[in-house]
């Protein structure tokens, strides 16, 4: 069964709703974004989550000392790097790292890229490192997914996630803007429908 991460969480209410509806992970954005949260707010939310819901910190070209501090202070389960971070940077963080690869239509991602991390395929957009609300060609993601586990992001919504899961067969899907009322504020019905449709789509053709 595909796993689901709800990203761009900014409130305890949205975090609790996502967890109650079956989210496997929630994401805190610590990079410039309308979904950015403070260290204190992320601490407040993460400390009150139910067990078995993982927390992910999202960073974009941050100083590695900052990433390590946030990871340790918040006891993050995973760190997601969404900038131009190198393999050396990934190795310095050790295990439990997700590396975003931004994909343009017509550009085929290299299956062996960032081999020491789990890769997340997202839509490339000028000036944006996520939350674009746009999908890319899922055929490109499917070619990578047959060779290694991937996380699929970019333009996913309750309306298209089942199609995406069946086509790509990812390990997990990641959504932010697709389940929002406005940037940083989630819609419970959209979260519920997204998770239900992603998980029931399974890995069938």
Description:
This protein has 205 residues and is α/β, with parallel strands linked by helices. It has one domain: Aldolase class I (TIM Barrel, Alpha-Beta Barrel). It has 7 helices and 10 strands. The protein has an 8-stranded parallel beta barrel with strand order 1-2-3-4-5-6-7-8, surrounded by 5 helices. A two-stranded antiparallel ribbon has the order 9-10. A hairpin with a 2-residue loop joins strand 9 and strand 10. Helix 6 runs parallel beside helix 7. The longest helix has 14 residues. The mean pLDDT is 93.
Do you know the CATH architecture?
Alpha-Beta Barrel
Mean pLDDT: 93
In total, the number of strands is 10
Distance between the termini: 13 Å
Task: Describe the sheet with the most strands.
Answer: 8 strands, parallel, barrel
Keywords:
about 200 residues; alpha/beta; TIM Barrel; eight-stranded parallel β-barrel; two-stranded antiparallel ribbon; 7 helices; about 30% helix
What secondary-structure arrangement, pairings included, does this model have?
Blueprint: E1 3-6, H1 12-20, E2 25-29, H2 39-47, E3 54-59, H3 64-74, E4 78-81, H4 87-93, E5 97-103, E6 118-123, H5 138-145, E7 150-152, H6 161-168, E8 172-175, E9 180-182, E10 185-186, H7 188-201
Parallel strand pairs: 1-2, 1-8, 2-3, 3-4, 4-5, 5-6, 6-7, 7-8
Antiparallel strand pairs: 9-10
Helix pairs in contact: 6-7
Give a short synopsis of this structure.
With 205 residues, this protein is an alpha/beta fold. 32% of the residues lie in helices and 21% in strands.
